[in-house]
């Protein structure tokens, strides 16, 4: 099962993008509700390695399960 970046909790530091071994994390368009850049995980490419969770400085911004309702993907 893929991981999920909670769009409205993402603070846009992109540590997850740099750490992802399969490059499945992408920047979304515009800003989220807290006015930061935001990122999304391609569920079909995620290998569930959890590196993104380990490097993310924001508690609860990345979930270890697929939750499409919490993540924008465009």
UniProtKB/TrEMBL annotation:
UniProt entry keywords in alphabetical sequence: Plastid
Residue ranges of the TM segments: none
Classification via Pfam families: Fer4_7
Ranges for domain 4Fe-4S ferredoxin-type: 1-30, 37-68
InterPro entries listed in its UniProt record: 4Fe4S_Fe-S-bd (IPR017896), 4Fe4S_Fe_S_CS (IPR017900)
PROSITE patterns in the record: 4FE4S_FER_1 (PS00198), 4FE4S_FER_2 (PS51379)
Signal peptide residue numbers: none
Gene3D superfamilies: 3.30.70.20
Protein name (database record): 4Fe-4S ferredoxin-type domain-containing protein
